[in-house]
Amino acid sequence: MTSARITIVGSANLDLVATAEKLPVAGETVTGATFAQHPGGKGANQALAARRLGADVSMIARTGEGPNRDAALALLKADGVDLSGIVSDPEQQTGVALIAVDKAGENHIVVASGANACLSPGDVNIEGKPDAVLCQLEIPTACVLAAMRANSGLFAVNLAPAGPVPVELLETADLLIVNEGEAAFYGDGIHRGGGLVALTLGGQGAVLYRAGKEIARVPAFTVPVIDTTGAGDTFCGALVLALAEGREEGEALRFASAASALTVTKPGAQPSLPWREDVDAFLEDQD
């Protein structure tokens, strides 16, 4: 089978991760943490997820220069993502995410967008005719709209982090992906168009809607939780890939949920992203 061609337009960050017994509340200092540094950013995470799951992936993004750029792009480069669409900006810092993780795998994340916020519609040069384009909201909305207008295949948007977007985006996208908080933020607006809406429910699984009507639902898989960072991004990359491959909607949702479940069993965002054979073997064990 020919690999699906997917273009990701989104963010690339360097994740600085502190893992502690518990997450701090406002004004509290938590000590005794361990530190790790990983590549991250929703766009880069989703690009690597789709690549490891079998897609031919190109990424469009903007970074700074220097060692943080190299570290942020290291796994994308190693695993064969096409990075020719990533602009190096000498005036900006590569985006950084400050992540705190507790012993249950829950996290707090603060993102310093850096060069991601400077991506421009002129940078969004989608070459050829990819089977799908996937965007998120860690880049300017104008870039997401440029990607939507330039694309002729499946156009998907992960509406994260939640924020105001043009009605045109909600009505035109072929696939919108949200978690519970994002779904609450957008309300019925996510069901205004005729496309698909995927809603992730954490421990309750995931649901797929079309025009406001449920068409598929899968329960969550039971796995040991080490770190939930990157699970949502894996779900996005996996779902878009499965749909681009022509899978039936319910089957695509189950595949994405399985890939997401495997992600939480390892620490870090990109280092934890599963390979296609891992997901296929996991699903076989569930049958």
> Terminal Cα separation, in Å?
24 Å
Radius of gyration equals 18 Å
Biggest pleated-sheet summary: 9 strands, mixed
- Integer tally of domains: 1
Q: State mean pLDDT (0 to 100 scale).
A: 94
User: Any low-confidence stretches, pLDDT <50, length ≥5?
Assistant: none
Please give the CATH class.
Answer: Alpha Beta
CATH superfamily: Ribokinase
Structural class, from secondary structure content? alpha/beta
Strand order of the largest sheet: 5-4-1-8-9-10-11-12-13
- General shape: globular
Tell me what you see in this structure.
It contains 8 helices and 13 strands. The chain has 287 residues and is an alpha/beta fold. The chain has one domain: Ribokinase (UDP-N-acetylmuramoyl-L-alanine:D-glutamate ligase, 3-Layer(aba) Sandwich), CATH 3.40.1190. Helix 1 packs across helix 6 and helix 6 runs antiparallel to helix 7. It is globular and about 50 Å long. The model has no long low-confidence stretch (mean pLDDT 94). Keywords: ATP-binding, Carbohydrate metabolism, Cytoplasm, Kinase, Magnesium, Metal-binding, Nucleotide-binding, Potassium, Transferase.
